[in-house]
Amino acid sequence: MAEQGMDVDWQEESEESGDERRKGRPERRSVLTEEQGQDMPVDMGSIELDSDTEEVDLNHCRIGKIERFETLRNVRVLCLRQNVIKKIENLESLTMLHELDLNDNLLTRIENLNALESLEILDLSFNSLRKIEGLERLRNLKKLFLVNNKIVKIDKLEHLQGLEMLELGSNRIRSNRLTKIEGLSFLVNLQELYLSHNGIEVIEGLENNRKLTTLDIASNRVKKMENLNHLVNLQECWMNDNLISNWNDLDELKNAKELQTIYLERNPLHQDPQYRRKIMLVLPWVRQIDATFVRI
């Protein structure tokens, strides 16, 4: 329910519609849709939320400040994407929070997250963040999304040893004028790494990330496929839109017997008339080359 004419929809999900954590009990969600909030800046004081709610969705409501969530002791998912929030604050009481979505806001710093030790998913994409910081206490974090920010260096992730997915696409990852992959050595459980649309020139720094199943370094400045032969669990490799020209580089993936998908289009070697055939000769177990499946 809501005051001042603001509609809040209460939705109950059946046991079959939820994942394992929802089974055996109905879930209550507070949802303010885009249509309801369109052209009307939301005063958080005008919304009354059930203190027992587990999921709050306030997407695209022109919310300017995080506040008035203190009573939501049981909330597990908080979505505040596509608002005008400038600062992460007033979340200390949400100790049960498992997922926080602040995608597409006006944030410039990662801060005030220390109390969220149960957090598993954090999305801070499409903001104006310049560095990775303030994540030291989030030891249960499994998925971190930092797409399309202004981050210039990968660092301060050593405490996130349970991290399984890291998405850093469309940033400005550089170190001393040289593009560089670094700061990942402690992420031994990392399974998915996305670094597309940056300025990376050298594939390096992945020695301890042996559990990687997905590696996306598309749309960078990589000239050579190297330092990959230890990634035996790799299933998807995205290297399209780089500067790779040497066919011998494919030998780096010979140990990746689980590899199903490889993207190498729009590299210099893509001009070779025997492009697909040469990939199949080196990696005969691959089932998809670029967007086309391999005929068996």
TrEMBL record:
Keyword Repeat: yes
Entry superkingdom: Eukaryota
Cross-referenced InterPro entries: Cilia_flagella_integrity, Leu-rich_rpt, Leu-rich_rpt_4, Leu-rich_rpt_typical-subtyp, LRR_dom_sf
Keywords: Leucine-rich repeat, Nucleus, Repeat
Gene Ontology CC annotations of this record: nucleus
Keyword Transmembrane among record annotations: no
Region (Disordered): 1-43
Stretches with biased composition (Basic and acidic residues): 19-32
Amino acid composition bias (Acidic residues), ranges on this chain: 9-18
Subcellular localization(s) per the UniProt record: Nucleus
Sequence similarity: Belongs to the SDS22 family.
Name of this protein: Protein phosphatase 1 regulatory subunit 7
Lineage start: Eukaryota, Metazoa, Chordata, Craniata, Vertebrata
